[in-house]
Amino acid sequence: MDSEHAARPLEGRHILLGITGSIAAYKAAVLCRLLKTAGADVRVMMTPLSKQFITPLTLATLSKNPILVEFFDPENGAWNSHVALGEWADCYLIAPATANTLAKMAAGIADNLLLTTYLSARCRVVVAPAMDLDMYAHHATQQNLRRLAEQGVGIVEPQEGELASGLTGKGRMAEPHQIVAFVEEMLAEKKKTLAGKHLIVTAGATIEQIDPVRFISNHSSGKMGYAIAAELALRGARVTLVSGRTALPTPAGVERVDVLSAEEMYRAAAAAFEEADGGVMCAAVADYTPVEVSPTKLKKSEGEMTVTLRRTHDIAAELGARKGKRLLVGFALETDQEADNAEAKLIRKHFDFIVLNSLRDPGAGFRGDTNKVTLIDRRGHEELPLMNKRDVAVRIVERIERFFER
Ligand code: CTP
Asked: Model's pTM, two decimal places?
């Protein structure tokens, strides 16, 4: 990549920037400017309410294009074709996206130009939600976001912080530079280096039922495995994602098999592995499950209570034993003697390489969006800095590419 292209990663790209009625609309000016600096041709579309937060004049000046609000220009009757705009754009970025606009998008309501354009757009769509913390956390909003994500809409997660309401929590629109980075990454052409390969990824936590109400599980969010599945699919692989319970949307182009217990995960992973070229064992699988599952809710009584557990299948070890020359990548989450324990697992489970997370590293591990890992194979260790889980996934998938190049 030449340096000019690196400096202007959106050169020649057409970005349609949709702005809706949130106080975060004031950040749209910076966003528009950054998109232009990155080389994009920007057209701006606003909902009528958003004009109360930021003036069309500001955005017309920054984008160097007239602003579109209505279906036709009231002055001269010129028609703003939502179909043509959707076709023109490489990416339709709606930032800020209010709860109201997200709900209408999810429901297919088209009562303004911005929404009509969404329904007719064939390009990639990205939303950057902005709203108060309770609106963001509300079941309806979360359901709408999930539905949009399942339809392939990219979501730039809002951030925690002080909100316009004075409250503090999650709902603040991501910063303009983060939104631009998201769009850049999405539009970056990935070479289909893994075309023709079929990989399985296990992700998330398993759930071992004790009775109809209680279960044994762990804190795994599934984010790391989902990021890997997404990255593999972007590079052309066929991906079967065997997933424990998580709230995450299925990444675009990935086949997802939902499971609950370690036993179910074992069966689904083993069946998919038969025909696969390799696997990435990212799930946090319960090592033990109750010997008996009570069909009715267990009642408390005086004294101690014992639940007898038995071992589950070690999915990774069993696939490792039958993998032959196929790829198998493992994960290790350790609290002490990290490297030694990870190396022992690498050998014992026949992994080609293992990704070590240390719970001691701040920012690494279960719930967050960042991770700090060391990649270990039989030749040595590669310690990566603290990174976004998506970037960690890129590094892991680059190693997988090298495996298949051999
Ligand atoms: N793993 C698996 N099935 C299990 C347990 C673990 O597939 N029943 C996989 C994990 O997905 C991960 C790797 O094995 O890739 C390491 O898991 P971990 O639980 O850390 O290893 P264990 O073998 O359980 O070792 P220990 O409990 O001694 O730490």
From this structure: 0.69
What is the rounded distance in angstroms from the CA atom of residue 327 to the CA atom of residue 346? 13
Query: What is the Å distance from ligand 1's center to 314 Cα?
Result: 7
Please report, as a single letter, which amino acid is at residue 91.
C
Quick check: CB of 200 below 6 Å from ligand 1? no
Q: Locate 399 and state its tokens.
A: 């190693």
Which residue among 349, 350, 356 is best mutated to probe the pocket of ligand 1, counting the most ligand atoms within 8 A of its Cβ?
Answer: 349
- CATH code of the domain made up of 2-187: 3.40.50.1950
222 in Cβ contact with 259 (< 8 Å): no
Q: Which residues of the chain does CATH 3.40.50.1950 include?
A: 2-187
- Atom index in ligand 1 nearest the CA of residue 331 equals 15
Confirm or reject CATH 3.40.50.10300 for domain 198-405, answering yes or no.
Answer: yes
E strand or H helix at 327: strand 327-334
Token pair for 170: 């999650």
CA 179 / ligand 1 centre spacing (Å): 36
CATH 3.40.50.10300 domain position(s) in the chain: 198-405
CA diameter of the chain: 83
Q: Output the tens digit of pLDDT for each of the chain's 406 residues.
A: 444 445 799 999 999 999 999 999 999 999 999 999 999 999 999 999 999 999 999 999 999 999 988 887 777 777 777 778 888 999 999 999 999 999 999 999 999 999 999 999 989 999 999 999 999 999 999 999 988 887 778 899 999 988 888 888 889 999 999 999 999 988 887 789 999 999 999 999 999 999 999 999 999 999 999 999 999 999 999 999 999 998 888 887 899 999 999 999 999 999 999 999 999 999 999 999 999 999 999 999 999 999 999 999 999 999 999 999 999 999 999 888 999 999 999 999 999 999 998 777 766 666 667 788 999 999 999 999 888 788 899 999 999 999 999 8
